[in-house]
Specification:
659 residues, Chloramphenicol Acetyltransferase, 2 domains, 8-stranded mixed beta sheet, 14% strand, globular, disordered C terminus
Length: 659
């Protein structure tokens, strides 16, 4: 029997004691297995706007055959239901392998996101060091709350608000590490709360151990950490790095696995790699650059390191503090979703800024020079063999090409934000997702398979499923909004299009609710496919169908990454001819990060960003015109397609949700 499904309005009431992150985990339900008929019906709805009618008809016949009571679908569904009774989250391992651990692409740009926080101002090297020490001290305070299970439980906001959420990801971000493998990567979890703990400081392509506790596990003071960092900065000035070993982690996963195996043949290298793997996190102290830095430059710095090899991309968290004031992080994505990382960074940033007035007064970031409690420990490497030297040179060349190929546009949309959208009784996330579809259609004349991450943390060990934005309703709106007049296209701001806009956002909201409440179709289809493999069956026809490949080819990979501060997170496209689009809606503005690859002649981050801005303005104008017509108490408006909209005393059924 399948696990009991969680009711939509179920709210877990947490008393003060049970708000501890680990204690409440057992109260969360297990991830349900969605209904097969519903999944297949929604699968066809997703395919329809993506393929020609002839191809859709063929796919429908295949799906109908799969769905018959005596068909293979029923057999696979029954096996999946049985499997689900044995696991807290039946999809987790399959999803993790499919999404990350079997992906052989290099981590920078392709997988690891970068986060940019407000730029600091360091008037001296000492101010830079002091800020970095305060950052490390705050991270350790946060980690102590994790280790002692004092972190408050997250409660869902927006859609299905009020439910307690799974906190498992939080316990990964400061204790995990991704190990490359020739066939599949693995994750390591370090349980080091009761032993001497350390960070790794990367500076000038060198690596140092930064101890943050003594051998009994007692935390060093903030001043002791600052003085230790100062000693490391001084030590880095007196030796030229040999080999730039960190750049090896930017290779494709199979190449890096081979290079790592060769590296670990020598004890010196094994000791250094072990210290990196068991560290709390990396602190990357980037040297100043000769040119002025804007937020796009800083985003490049966080995502791939720019021209620096000051990174170790397998480590879950790499805090980056530049001498020029750049501040942010790079994080390895398999361990956690962005929300856990953002929570960590914003709490740390808030605590630092609450204790400092970062207004350029250098004295407030200066600390006295005192004797260091620990002598800096430099990681040593033996990389003189031919194979390692060749891999390092290969990695340097590949990373430079990757950086040059990364086409990033940051759009600061200031015409309005989520408050305007909410006043239209529309979900801000659904509104923005529809805008992305309209923008893509404007540039390319068709829609493509679109990924938007949907949190499944309402369930034990929940990560994400997919909210699919390329809907029939979005395509209908895109086609209707513009009509050719005199050789140009002019938007039609009429009642029919307002109706279509509401339909498109309503469907997007419904898809969101389905995904976050355990009824997403992507994980379900993955589970059915994996069950077939486990049972030794030939690949079912539904998964060999070309439509299924199109379904899983995410030309647009998107996600909402909300922050309180003026920060943003960005990442690359997941396919060569695609886009990665993150967005951060604030009350009165929205920040978009649009990424693509310069090597693809058909993509342009500038062009798509411009289309996003244009269509958001168009949608605003459509809403405003509709609101003016409503306020004028017009009776009925009938479109050319006989769609009648009654609005003089109309009760708007769309509820205001914010994801």
């Amino acid at each position: 029997m399948p696990r009991r499904k969680m009711k939509t309005k179920q709210i877990l009431e947490l008393d003060q004691d049970s708000r501890k992150a680990l204690l409440h985990q057992a109260k969360l339900p297990s991830l349900p297995v969605p209904d097969l008929a519903e999944t297949l019906e929604r699968y066809l709805l997703c395919i329809k706007p993506l393929v020609p009618e002839v191809q859709f008809d063929k796919t429908k016949r295949i799906v109908d055959k799969f769905a018959t009571p005596s068909g293979i679908g029923a057999t696979l569904q029954e096996s999946l239901l049985k499997k689900s009774t044995k696991y807290e989250n039946w999809s987790y391992d399959w999803w993790l392998e499919d999404m990350y651990l079997r992906n052989k692409a290099p981590l920078p740009v392709n997988s690891n996101p970068g986060m940019v926080l407000p730029k600091m101002e360091f008037k001296s090297e000492n101010a830079w060091i002091t800020f970095s020490g305060k950052l490390v001290a705050e991270v350790m305070k946060y980690k102590r709350n994790l280790d002692e299970d004092k972190l408050p439980v997250d409660i869902a906001r927006g859609q299905l608000a009020g439910q307690a959420l799974c906190m498992r990801q939080y316990f990964h971000i400061l204790s995990s590490y991704r190990v490359p493998g020739r066939e599949m990567d693995t994750q390591l979890m370090s349980k080091n709360s009761n032993r001497q703990q350390h960070f790794i400081v990367a500076i000038a392509n060198q690596f140092f151990v930064l101890y943050v506790t003594d051998k009994l596990g007692i935390d060093f003071t903030e001043d002791e950490i600052i003085n230790e960092i100062r000693a490391i900065v001084d030590a880095a000035k007196h030796e030229n790095p040999r080999g730039s070993v960190g750049v090896l982690t930017s290779l494709g996963r199979s190449e890096w696995a081979d290079a790592r195996d060769n590296l670990l043949k020598k004890q010196m290298n094994r000791n250094s790699v072990d210290l990196i793997e068991t560290s709390v996190a990396l602190l990357c102290l980037d040297c100043p650059t000769a040119t002025s830095r804007n937020e796009t430059d800083m985003a490049h710095q966080m995502i791939h390191g720019s021209s620096s090899y000051n990174r170790w991309f397998d480590k879950t968290i790499q805090f980056v503090v530049g001498r020029d004031g750049s501040f942010g992080l790079n994080y390895e994505h398999s361990a956690a979703e962005g929300i856990a990382v953002i929570h960590l960074m914003e709490e740390i940033f808030r605590n630092i800024t609450n204790n400092l007035h970062l207004d350029g007064k250098e004295a407030e970031l200066d600390t006295p020079h005192t004797q260091c409690v620990v002598t800096p420990e430099r990681l040593r490497w033996d990389v003189n063999d031919t194979k390692t030297s060749r891999y390092i040179e290969l990695a340097r060349t590949a990373l430079m090409k990757m950086a040059l190929n990364f086409d990033l546009k940051i759009l600061r949309f200031t015409h309005y934000g989520k408050e305007f959208i909410k006043r239209q009784n529309i979900s801000p996330d659904a509104f923005i997702q529809v805008a992305l579809q309209l923008a893509f259609f404007q540039v390319y004349g068709h829609l493509v398979s679109t990924y938007e991450s949907a949190s499944t943390r309402r369930y034990r060990h929940g990560r994400v499923d997919n909210i699919r934005g390329a809907t029939i309703q979005a395509l209908e709106l895109a086609r209707s909004l513009r009509t050719k007049k005199g050789g140009s296209r002019k938007a039609k701001l009429d009642a029919r299009n307002m109706m279509l806009l509401r339909r498109a956002t309503k469907v997007q909201t419904d898809n969101t609710i389905a995904a976050i409440s355990g009824r997403g179709i992507d994980c379900h289809l993955l589970g059915l496919r994996q069950i077939a493999k486990e049972l030794g069956m030939p690949e079912p026809e539904i998964f060999a169908d070309p439509s299924f490949d199109i379904f899983n080819y995410f030309t647009m990979s998107t996600s909402q990454v909300p922050t309180v501060s003026d920060s943003f997170m960005c990442y690359g496209a997941v396919v060569e001819d695609g886009y990665g689009v993150s967005y951060n809606p604030h009350s009165h503005d929205i920040t978009f990060c649009v990424a693509s690859f310069r090597s693809c002649s058909s993509t342009s981050s500038d062009k798509l960003a411009s289309a996003i801005e244009e269509n958001l303005i168009l949608m605003r104008d459509l809403c405003r015109q509709w609101n003016r017509r409503r306020s004028s108490s017009l009776g009925e408006i009938t479109s050319g397609d006989a769609i009648t909209i009654r609005h003089s005393r109309e009760r708007i059924e769309d509820k205001c949700f914010e994801i």
